[in-house]
Amino acid sequence: MTHPEIDRVTLEDVRAAARLLDGVVTRTPVQPFRAMTEVAGAPVVLKCENLQRAGSFKIRGAYTRLSRMSDDEKARGVVAASAGNHAQGVALAAQMLGIDAVVYMPVDASVPKLIATRGYGAEVRQIGTSVDEALVAARAEAARSGRTLIHPFDHLDVVTGQGTVALEILEQVPDVGTVVVPLGGGGLVAGIATVLAEAAPHVRVVGVQAETAAAYPASLAAGRPVPGTLGTTMADGIAIGTPGDVPFEVLARLGVEVRTVSEEEMSRALLLVAERGKQIVEPSGAAGVAAVLAAAPGSLPGVIVPVLTGGNVDPLLLVRVVQHGLVAAGRYLQLRVCIDDRPGSLAALLDAIAAAGANIVQVEHTRTDTSLTVSQVLVNVQLETKGHEHCTAVVEKLRAAGFDVSA
């Protein structure tokens, strides 16, 4: 049975999708995040879609879309394009419904996401360097083979399925005042905003993009989806070049606010969520928390609910991002110190560092730097520190002890 096309998603459509998804998706938990309450000036509660089946919210929209295809469409199979989370959602939904799936992914897609997508039974083809390039290939495959293209965000059924997140938030956090949502193509934000506009119009919705890959601000200013510049970002899950027509209409009509966050802000948020929230999320999944951290205290009304959209992070990337987050939080300090090339100089430096309360992680000792004289040695030292004030104090104490220090 085909699902009739409608001009706009409604609250009742989303409620119907929730009934369809009952027993298929996980009703993900919410978790009070007291570590952010003082910073935000209001209670913060995390919506943990990183604990969803296939590791992100994407299964909600993918299953809704695939289940409503005709028998003939199901028999011809589906094709999708994704950096990873939509890929896994489509692959899992297709496996559950007995539909053959081909998924195009960028050549630099996360290895764990590739393995998981194949593990759900989909055929993976890698092409291009972005989701937009993979989507071009997926459209060509759909035209050639007759497969149905399952767009990651630009379809009414996908928006409808993603909107079920908002129904759960309203039941789990009845006093919610603001929902902060990572924003790529816009399917999740559109679904959540649609539900809240009808069921709880007092609740504010904020979409969050990576500032180096943010197409929505310019599109909203232009009044139509326009291509944005895709710069380098760790948040591959929300790095989308052009907003979708369906979600853009929702965000524009409902006046959804869109903010951007920096790479440093996302890495700090990811670290905080891991260290204090005990949740592992990918950089894009932490974008909402990053926006709350960057906001002025008290500027977001009511109980704040950031949605942790996904937990499918490559362990190697996680190591790099955590280190970046430690630096951003003043928990990790790298220094270059020029010392005399004589016995005892290095020991004196290390003693001074210990006296300043910093823990030495790594020391590199070199005599070959072109800036040095024959009587000097350059020491590159990496330290564990206790925050920005401690970093400043360490540098000041070393300089007071007569060391030539540059951070």
UniProtKB/TrEMBL annotation:
- A UniProt-annotated Pfam family: ACT_4
Record-given protein name = threonine ammonia-lyase
Task: Give the Enzyme Commission number.
Answer: 4.3.1.19
Instruction: Report domain ACT positions.
Output: 334-407
Source species: Isoptericola hypogeus
Tell me yes or no: is Oxidoreductase among this UniProt entry's keywords: no
User: Which family is this protein grouped under?
Assistant: Belongs to the serine/threonine dehydratase family.
Q: Which InterPro entries match?
A: ACT-like_dom_sf, ACT_dom, ACT_ThrD-II-like, Ser/Thr_Dehydratase, Thr_deHydtase_catblc, TrpB-like_PALP, TrpB-like_PALP_sf
Cofactors that this protein relies on: pyridoxal 5'-phosphate
**Entries under NCBIfam families matching the protein:** ilvA_1Cterm (TIGR01127)
Keyword annotations for this protein, in alphabetical order, are: Lyase, Pyridoxal phosphate
